[in-house]
Amino acid sequence: MKNKSTQQDKIFVSEEEKTINWQDLQSEFKKNFGEEVYNSWLKNVTLIKEYNDYLILGVPTRFFRDWIVSRYLDKILELVKNFKLSLSRIEFKIIEDQKSNRVDDFKIEDFNKVTEIKDSILNYNRLNPNLNFNNFIKGTSNEVALSYSKKVCEHTSRYNPLYIYGGVGLGKTHLLNAIGLELQSTKEVMFISAERFMYHFIKSIKKNDMVNFKDFFRKSSVFIIDDIQFIRGKESLQEEFFHTFNSLLEKGSQIIISADRPPLKLDRVQERIKSRLSGGLIIDIDIPDLELKKNIISNRINDIQSQFKEHINISEEVINFIASEAKTNIRELIGVLNRVVAFSRLHKRVLNIIDCKNILKDVFSQAKIVTVDKIQNTVSNYFNISLNDMLSQRRSRPLARPRQIAMFLAKRLTTRSLPEIGRRFANRDHTTVIHAVKTITKLSEKDEEMKKNLVQIKSLLLEN
Ligand code: ADP
Ligand code: MG
Description:
Blueprint: H1 2-12, H2 22-33, H3 35-40, E1 46-50, E2 54-59, H4 62-71, H5 73-83, E3 89-94, H6 143-154, E4 162-165, H7 172-183, E5 189-193, H8 194-206, H9 210-218, E6 222-226, H10 235-250, E7 254-259, H11 271-277, E8 281-284, H12 290-308, H13 316-325, H14 330-347, H15 353-365, H16 372-382, H17 387-391, H18 397-413, H19 418-424, H20 430-446, H21 448-463
Helix pairs in contact: 6-7, 12-13, 12-14, 14-15, 16-18, 18-20, 19-20, 20-21
The chain binds adenosine-5'-diphosphate and magnesium ion (MG).
């Protein structure tokens, strides 16, 4: 019975079949995303065409599409599926002007030539044309990574694998995507996140279709895999990845990998994989300095201006403020800027610092809640030690420092009192917490390594 229905699904793929009431769905969006997000973004999305397994939605601009895809797509899909279970993905079409609002001449598949598993739930595997080398701004923190990403395009297989690592939101995916775009016209490019790789892997096991899976992933001549740290602790996935990796290398394919840490720091990953990952060139992307952040903002403003065809008036002072406010992360920086621009467009006025502070207060108050548990887990993970060891009474430095960092962050990022924090660290006294806070504060002022660690841990905490 079950088989039969999937057969039928296959037959009806792409068949037009209307069941969605767009109006109802819109109210659902409003309920779930809140008035403000709804009015600024989702209200302007239109339903262009409905198929059995996917929807084509219309958005006014590229900027709009990117914004929605990066923030709301998962949730939208979830809501849409409540209305129609058979839907598995959403395509966007940019409607330049109302007259061309027809799908007749709209070819969904002609986006790019990247190989793609056909029934992918979302189009995460697709190369994003907006993340290219042209709009990747160079700064001291990323210039090495940028230059080798370009070199790898000129001479594939010279640096193999190319391994790029760095904290969240620093441009890894952007660079990987840019490499893919650059090479796709001449090579068979596969671009996938480790998470999607696993999704296909599991699906193929379930469907008893490993042969296809292997063929599919091994035929590329450029294999780009994003966020490899995802394979940590997943044994069978690592097994498969190892074989894919070997067979790609054997046939001379270029492999490009990103991760949030260097290969040797990938705990719970097989040694043989770490050694393979370290076999080529390893480069890191650092956190951006003020200059890079300001350049990114200016560039972004130009972009938005040309998209909306209107002048966006943001003072130097405000740019400085935004750049210094977004401490670690370029994604956050752009998020903050978008927010400020959206606000300024909505209220049709030039913003001052006080406006910005208000807008940002709002952004940061929506920020994720950081708990002591989460801090402890993140810190112990980051330093590759077990939580038990970190909380234990042992005083060796490799355990004591992370413990102190965790206490320090608990004080800084949560509202817990010193005694409460002490209790959460295996019943320590609050004076121990005070000592930890002092020690780490001092270290963070003069010790570069400590500074970097804190920034990266914070970004892990605030992003995930
Ligand atoms: P990561 O994969 O390291 O988490 P992303 O590549 O997703 O980070 O980058 C986050 C956001 O910041 C993206 O919108 C990306 O386009 C932008 N970005 C990052 N670095 C730069 C840069 N040097 N120039 C322009 N945009 C950048
Ligand atoms: Mg990424």
